Amino acid sequence: VLENRDLQDSIKPQKVEFRSLNFNSTLHWQPGRAREARDTVYFVQYKVYGQRTWQNKDSCWGIQNHVCDLTNETSDIQEPYYGRVRAASAGIYSHWSLSCRFTPWRETVIGPPMVTVMHSNKSIILKLQAPRSPYKRRKGSKIPMTNYYDLLYQVFIINNLLDEQHRVLVYEGKGKVIKIEDLRPGVSYCIVAKIYVPMLDRSSAYSSRQCFML
């Protein structure tokens, strides 16, 4: 019995946590203290905070991975959720390991905007596009993150003659098409953009750099 209890404890999953980008939400965990046996499998359940019964996630039942996609199960983005995981090895089942409470709207990470650059002789025009969520409209297109939050675009310009850290904020607002004028011909510039969410006081990562010379 003691040996079984030791095995139970040593295979119990560790560090169960939700990770979420643009509402693509997955449950992650690490194997228990025991060096993971080849036959260790995992079982995932989830529930809304306040519900009594846990739901099985069928496609994460008896899996060998350490990640389970719960995007569809957490689609009511204002609700708080829990996930939990247990392991089994050699016919022994561990106790459940519980995640912290997870509220998608509050905790998802918003990704950077897509930036398209078009330039004329002294100015450039930028088209900005917010990332899309995994959730779809009735017609099938994915709902953009601007439907869920009040988002501001921030556009920075880097003059490559100056130092890389010298990012100048040239625009902040909701406009999706922006014109930047009075740029010097023959100078190499780079543009990066990010999204700011005032309500949560959080920013996305920067978009990838787009460089050009007029």
From TrEMBL:
Listed Pfam families: Interfer-bind, Tissue_fac
Tell me yes or no: is Repeat among this UniProt entry's keywords. yes
What subcellular locations does the record give? Answer: Secreted
Q: Which GO terms describe its cellular component?
A: extracellular region; plasma membrane
What PANTHER family has UniProt attached to this entry?
A: INTERFERON/INTERLEUKIN RECEPTOR, INTERLEUKIN-22 RECEPTOR SUBUNIT ALPHA-2
Q: What does this protein do?
A: Receptor for IL22. Binds to IL22, prevents interaction with the functional IL-22R complex and blocks the activity of IL22 (in vitro). May play an important role as an IL22 antagonist in the regulation of inflammatory responses.
The record's comment on protein family reads:
Belongs to the type II cytokine receptor family.
- Write the protein's name: Interleukin-22 receptor subunit alpha-2
